[in-house]
Amino acid sequence: MKLALAAFLAATGPAATLLAEDVPDLKRNTPVPAGQQIPVADFFRPALLREPKLSPSGTHIAAIVTAGEDNRLLLVYDVKTQKYDILGQSGDTDVNDVHWLNDKRLVFQLSTQKLYGIGLFAADVGDLTATYPILQYCGSSLIAVPRADRLSPLVWNSMDQFQPPWRDMGAVLVTSSMVSRTKGVNLLTASLEARAALMQPVRENNDGHILDRYPVPGGGDTVGYIADKDGILAFSQTSQNGIISLNRLAGGTWVRCPVDMDHWALFGCGNRPGELAARPPHMEGKPSPLVLLDGATGKAGETLVDDKGYDFVGGVYRDPVSGEIIGATAQREGPHTIWFDEAYQKFQGTLNRSFPGLVVRIIGSNEAQDFFLVAAYSDRQPTMYNWVDFKRHTSGLFEQSAPWIDPKRMQPESIIRFKTRDGRQLDAYLTLPAGASKGRPAPLVVVPHGGPWARDNWGFDPEAQFLASRGYAVLKPNYRASPGYAWMFPERDQWEFVKMSHDVTDATKAVIATGLVDPGRVAIMGGSFGGYLALEGVVDEPSLYRCAVAISGVFDWEQLIRDRKYDYTKFDWWYATLLRRLGDPRSEPAKFEALAPVRHIDRVRVPVFVTHGGDDPVADIGQSTRLLSELKKNNVPNDSYIVGSEGHGMLHFAHRVEQYSRIEAFLAKNMAPAAAAQ
Predict the structure, then answer these.
(1) Contact indicator for 40, 21 with CB cutoff of 8 Å
(2) What was the pLDDT predicted at 115?
(3) What is the torsion angle, in degrees rounded to the nearest 10, for the CA atoms of residue 458, residue 463, residue 468 and residue 472?
């Protein structure tokens, strides 16, 4: 039962003009010949298929597929007949975030320009062209699908706080009667007038009751909702002055929970009413487990996952019928799966034996729990989606996410450990190019991740494989803010950005000490917070790196705080959080002077490449234009790639290809061997 989708999409999907002249034909969905260099585009093409989801009874699979160059469509596949339907439109419009309501109806998001949400839409199996909107142009997102009434999805209208007439609604229970009212309207061909007519909000459900008119205790702005295991609204999270609060819905009223959200992390609902899956505050020198949290008392209950070396970082897996937590996935030095259900433990053992050498994860099943979708991947193998029929004892490939990648030509990713200057041990991931050894040390590109409260994980990384294919070793260090390691450090270190830069330096020097990389040919490259670390690295360590690449970075935190203060929304909790946790530039000018590498460009001795999107909602383009101005003022060699229509990172494929083509040329120019450089 292989989908065999690639040829159809390549032949019929929409296409657009690429910027880079040497981009190969994107209709090719097989690897290039072994003797040919792998094109830049092959590493950064969007996945052919992603996020496959089984309908409740397992009769159909819904997924997002990519057509042409960069257009995301909805695919619905009939498991029995092996036929499929595709819904989408040409232009810069994409389908995202698909969910099944029942076996015949599903909902999904539409977005435009990779930046802006159009709304939440529904479609029926067998008639995808009759797509109809549920909510449009009002920040709608799905919270949950109630198990007892699957055609009444719980939807959050996040524009309620500043755009009437939705004020004070917060969450809307969208009912089947509302769906029927708009059924049969084809959004993809409807006129603007017809779309406008469908934008009128429905304020009430069948009982005439507005779901979220309950006042939040103490006021504040809603930042999220959590439903219970049955899909019924149970918790909300609100923000006031940068402090997140947790509230539970009790008797038609929001009640503040005695839970310190500065220190607890939530992973969804628990197994009983009023319960959450959560990670508790850190105890000094002890990793934080995954536990069940009583929202009413704020007390931790049963421990689900307790790792002796890492804070819990991952997600939970739920029984498709009961909604109870039956397993968890955790990120340690590598991926790890834990099952609390004996049957699933046996399933996992069978899967591990069936896919040797790969990480195998169950991503969904039918309600009978005898037909499964699984994802299998490794450091060299992009994700493959497979089906497993335990009832008939058969299995097979559904579709590959990147069939144009040949795993045999990819390089292994090693997990290494390094010590920070204050004696802590962290993980990093090292990819060496073919032929690298102590006798033939490779040039090194250090790639710190963004966040900073994100982390790198073991697995297939197209950026690392691209650089390795060009002859570079790639080091991806986790640093003290990376989730999983916070238990090792004082709490204040979660906001000590300079110390994070020191961790990256320590990891770099540790790899240099192995003799596997050339100490005279080291570059640093990062995006977002990683862009900050890249520039901070060449400011603090002017003799360690040969060049730097900064992608969508933040280079002056005082400037970011000013930008956030005047953000167009009036409930930007991030601004208040920065003031509270990072500090106030007005009272701590020396601290913010030290935190701003753009103010110290006189210390930079190496070339810098800067790339940014003009519509970046996270780090304003002014961060990079100011950096370029300072580089030119201080006669620092520099190059840039600025795209006015892009967001945080190059979201459009053509722009990604152009960006990495320019990065490749920049590194080749500035990382040449010393003799060649002379």
Answers:
(1) no
(2) 79
(3) -110
Element (H, E) at 154: strand 154-157
For residue 83, CA distances in Å to 50, 52, 60, 67, 590 come to 18, 15, 10, 18, 64
Q: Where are the domains of the chain?
A: 411-556+598-677, 560-595
For 513, the token pair is 């000490």
Structure tokens at 60: 């159909």
Mean pLDDT by 10 residues, the chain (678 residues): 57 37 63 95 94 96 87 92 85 89 93 84 89 79 90 76 30 32 34 36 33 54 91 92 92 93 96 97 91 97 96 97 97 96 95 94 96 97 95 91 97 98 97 97 98 96 98 98 96 96 98 98 98 98 97 96 71 81 95 97 98 93 97 98 93 94 98 70
How far is Cα 380 from Cα 461, in angstroms, rounded to an integer?
8
| Cβ atoms 236, 269 nearer than 8 A | no
* Separation CA 520–CA 444 (nearest Å): 9
Predicted local confidence at residue 70, as pLDDT: 82
In 3-state terms, the chain is what percent helix, strand and coil (to 5)? Answer: 25, 35, 45
- What is the DSSP code string of 582-622? I--TTT-HHHHHHT-GGGGGGG--S-EEEEEETT-SSS-TH
Is the Cα torsion angle 5, 369, 292, 234 positive or negative in sign?
A: positive
Residue type, 192: L
Q: How far apart are CA 197 and CA 82, in angstroms?
A: 38
**What does the pLDDT read at residue 564?**
84
- Helix residue ranges per DSSP H, 4-73: 6-12, 40-44
Contact 140, 127 (CB under 8 A): no
Instruction: Please state, as a whole number, how many other Cβ atoms lie within 10 Å of the Cβ of residue 363.
Output: 17
Are 448 and 504 in contact, with CB atoms under 8 Å apart? Answer: yes
H or E element: which one contains 345? helix 342-354
- Compute the distance between CA of residue 365 and CA of residue 388 in angstroms, rounded to an integer: 9
Q: Give the CA distances from residue 353 to residues 85, 153, 162, in Å, rounded to whole numbers and listed in that order.
A: 34, 39, 54
What pLDDT does 303 receive?
Answer: 97
Q: What's the pLDDT score for residue 90?
A: 65
Gap between the terminal Cα atoms of the chain: 58
Q: pTM of the entire structure?
A: 0.89
Predicted pLDDT at 157: 76
Domain 411-556+598-677 CATH (choose: 3.40.50.1820, 3.90.550.10, 2.40.128.120, 3.40.50.300): 3.40.50.1820
What pLDDT, on a 0 to 100 scale, did the predictor assign at position 216? 59
- CA dist 102 to 97, 120, 577, 670, Å? 16, 16, 40, 56
- 307, 330 contact by CB (below 8 A): yes
